[in-house]
């Protein structure tokens, strides 16, 4: 007969301190009241507990389960399914480099590889100063601005290796960084609270949302019968204008890069806490 090694059962997650619990519960009740079925509030509640600690802890999942009358297993299943929920401590700024098809072709792979070296971290890892967590992400529906880097879900369009390095250097140095479009940048915890459904009270933040840029509206203008913009010709084409210079940063076709998804040293995917 094979011996079976039984470890010690995992202790229940500790509760929040009383004052933190009271504050979060008041916010949670406000969120739950928006839904006819309380369990529908689980996603915003996970953002709420993430705004408290910067990631979703076992304590946070216990809190959500108790308020929604769910099991911790049900909450854990959701928290581990969506990559927007962090399972371990993260930096103040979540820097995501899109490495999906078009962004990768336009230089996203090169940007991600260079940032790993520049910051000294791998996929999903955080710099020693706790400022930046780097990860490669899937499509952000901004292909007309490829390659795209997102910081706490705000867009930084048309990036290059050098501009991306300046971006993370500015974030770590505490310098003001302005997204290409959308609201001003805030910390990851502040972003999580906004995603939980609470208003962004910063002056001018809502008005700064903006709208689609010119590259996104080309098809709409053509559909309305407006004059088409000048044709963009690839430098590889025979009829390419001779005065056009090639891209300054290599694409995956010009200089093949190892895709981040195949990096065996830093695999993607949710990270579970020990014992889960």
UniProtKB/TrEMBL annotation:
Region entry Disordered: which residue ranges?
A: 228-276
State the family named in the UniProt similarity comment for this chain.
Answer: Belongs to the complex I 24 kDa subunit family.
Keywords from UniProt, A to Z, are: 2Fe-2S, Iron, Iron-sulfur, Metal-binding
Per the record, a Pfam family? 2Fe-2S_thioredx
As cofactor, the record names: [2Fe-2S] cluster
Which residues lie in coiled coils?
none
Protein name per UniProt = NADH-quinone oxidoreductase subunit E
Q: Which InterPro entries match?
A: NuoE-like, NuoE_dom, NuoE_N, Thioredoxin-like_sf
Q: Which organism is it from?
A: Streptomyces hygroscopicus
User: Could you tell me which PANTHER family the record lists for this protein?
Assistant: NADH DEHYDROGENASE [UBIQUINONE] FLAVOPROTEIN 2, MITOCHONDRIAL, NADH DEHYDROGENASE UBIQUINONE FLAVOPROTEIN 2, MITOCHONDRIAL
């Amino acid at each position: 007969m094979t011996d079976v090694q039984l470890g010690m059962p995992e202790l229940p997650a500790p509760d929040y301190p009383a004052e933190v619990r009271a504050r979060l519960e008041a916010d949670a009740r406000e969120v739950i009241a928006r839904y006819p079925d309380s369990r529908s509030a689980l996603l915003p509640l996970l953002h709420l507990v993430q705004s408290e600690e910067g990631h979703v802890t076992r304590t946070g999942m216990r809190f959500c389960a108790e308020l929604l009358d769910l099991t911790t297993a049900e909450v854990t299943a959701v928290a581990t399914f969506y990559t927007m929920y962090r399972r371990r401590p993260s930096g103040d700024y979540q820097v995501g480099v899109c490495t999906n098809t078009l962004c990768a072709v336009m230089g996203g792979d090169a940007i991600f590889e260079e940032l790993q070296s520049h910051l000294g971290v791998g996929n999903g890892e955080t710099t020693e100063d706790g400022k930046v967590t780097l990860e490669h992400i899937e499509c952000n529906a901004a292909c007309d601005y490829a390659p795209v880097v997102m910081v706490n879900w705000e867009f930084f369009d048309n990036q290059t290796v050098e501009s991306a390095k300046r971006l993370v250097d500015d974030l770590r140095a505490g310098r003001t960084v302005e997204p290409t479009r959308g609201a001003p940048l805030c910390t990851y915890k502040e972003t999580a609270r906004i995603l939980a459904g609470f208003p962004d009270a910063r002056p001018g933040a809502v008005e700064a949302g903006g709208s689609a840029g010119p590259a996104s509206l080309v098809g709409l203008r053509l559909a309305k019968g407006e004059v088409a913009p000048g044709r963009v010709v690839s430098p590889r084409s025979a009829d390419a204008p001779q005065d056009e210079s090639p891209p300054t940063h290599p694409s995956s076709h010009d200089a093949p890069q190892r895709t981040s998804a195949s990096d065996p040293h830093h695999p993607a995917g949710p990270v579970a806490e020990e014992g889960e």
